[in-house]
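Weekly modeling sync, notes
Attendees: S.R. (lead), two postdocs, one rotation student

Agenda item 3: backlog of single-chain predictions. S.R. asked that every request posted to the team notebook include the full sequence so nobody has to chase files. The rotation student volunteered to paste the first one in as an example of the format we agreed on. Action items at the bottom.

Example entry:
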Amino acid sequence: MKLSAFFSFYTLLIFLTIGCKEEPPTQPTKSDPSADPAIEEIKRLMRTGEEINASDKMDIPGLRAQALAILNHRLKTHKETYAIIESGVWEYEFVFDGKMSEPGRYNGVWIDFKNDHTYEYGTRGNIEGGGRYNYHFDRGELVLVDNNKGRRPQEFTVKIQNDVMVLVGTITYGDRNTQMKLDKVTEAIRQG
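Predicted structure, as returned to the notebook:
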C-alpha cells in the first residue's frame, strides 16, 4: 500500500515537472507589425505632426484651436504666474522620444518662460521662435502653443526640483512618448 502511494506520488511529480516547463521566448515574425521599422517611423512622424494618422493628416489647425481655447480659458480662470518656472532660462539637457538624445546634442538650446504667459526659445544668441503658455501649478500641467501655425500644440506634466525641470508628454496632443530634462541657467545663454 505504501509502495503504491509512493509510486503514484512520484509519477504525479514527474508529470508536473514536465508540464510546467517554460516555453522559450518566441522571436517576432515578419507578420508581427510591431517588428516592422516602417511602423516605428510612422509612429515617430505622428508624434511630430509631420505626416499621417493612418489615413489622413494630423489636424494641426484643429488641435491648435482646441489648445488656444483651453489656454484662453485657463488664462481667465488661473491668471497666476509662477517664479518656479519663469525665473531664469531653461537649457535642455536631453530629450527622449523613443530613443535617448546624444550627450551634448542640446548644448545651448534654451526656452525662456515670461511672466506674461509667453515664451521664447532658441539656440545660444538666436531666438528661433516663441508662443503662449499656461502652467497650472495644482495639476502640474504645462500647455504650449507656438506662434508658428504649422506646429502642433504640446502638453506636459511638469516635475521641478531645485534647478531641474522634467517634462513628461501627455497623450492630449501626441507627446506621450516624449520626456525632457532641462536645467535652469543664467540669462547669459541667450547672448551666445
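Discussion: group reviewed the output briefly. The radius of gyration is 26 Å.
Action items: rotation student to repeat for the remaining queue; S.R. to check formatting next week.
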